[in-house]
Amino acid sequence: MQRPVLVFYLVDAVVLTGYSALSVVPTWLAAVHLLLGAASCAGAVAAVRAGWHRRVGEHWFSLINTMIAVSVLLSMAMAAPRIAAMFLMTVVTVVATLAIRAPPRMLALASVLALAGMVGTLATIGSDLGLAFGSTGEQALTTVWLALLLIKGSAINVVGSLLKHELTKANERLTEALRLVESLAARDDLTGLLNRRSAMAALNEQQRRHLQGAAPFAVALLDIDHFKQVNDRFGHQAGDEVLRRFAHLLHEALPADQTAARHGGEEFLLLLRGVAELDAAVAAVDRLRQRVQDHDWSRVAEGLALTLSAGVALADPGEPVDRLLERTDQALYRAKAGGRNTVLPASAD
Length: 349
Hints:
Elements: H1 2-21, H2 29-49, H3 52-56, H4 58-79, H5 84-101, H6 104-125, H7 136-186, H8 196-211, E1 217-224, H9 227-234, H10 236-253, E2 259-264, E3 267-273, H11 278-294, E4 308-314, H12 321-337, E5 343-345
Parallel strand pairs: 4-5
Antiparallel strand pairs: 1-3, 1-4, 2-3
């Protein structure tokens, strides 16, 4: 932001040099104006690099820089009363730039301070206040200065629009990043399925809705049979690939309104929404079991074959989720104890 400000000081110095040539202002005024402007810009850059803008706050830092610029302009107005009106109009432009970065209350404070400075300046130069418009040269330079004021105002609007556009884009990127972070926090790193915490949140929400009259649902716990032997025989890398492929099979087989999650280790949880009959839920999970059994696991490791065991429970309205999962887990235990590669329904309370 300091680079365009420095350009404004440089352009003003060029115009002041013209006024100096017409003996309207002192010969040293243009150089002092540019020197003070460059010093204020350099000071602002140095303060930012030193972190002072964070220590005092972005808004207060902007206010301080604005007041420094106003002080420079008012000093120039007192040094050159014949064109003081031009500097006073420039003060208005400078204060307006604060609207881009500061809240209304900060802009109001800056306006009050600038107005006080302008009143003090007018009281100091009194009747000497003027607008150089006598000779043809003065008319030309004054017209140029007025045109520059309009250009500065337009430039401020353009910069403001660009800043707002960049801020909108930054907010969109931040929103997308937060969405990604939330998604990553909700999912298992290895399989991409929901993790246990997210699955429990989904279960609790589904049970709450069920209690309020929403459609019934069922829960299934799936366990890959003899998974430890996969790691022992083929290695943990093969075991990880099995988990990824198993999760992919679940994702492919389940409708979009159903939820699969990694419950822990080689155990997976299914949330089957809209299922009103326990037999229907068992049949749906048994189709998954058959699909896992028929899958060509030799692509992971030669000679590898896998099956699953599962327990399935139909949720009762008002039943605590912990109790629902306990019933489902008991059914899973019976399936494993009974020889594995089977799906069993949970017992009702």
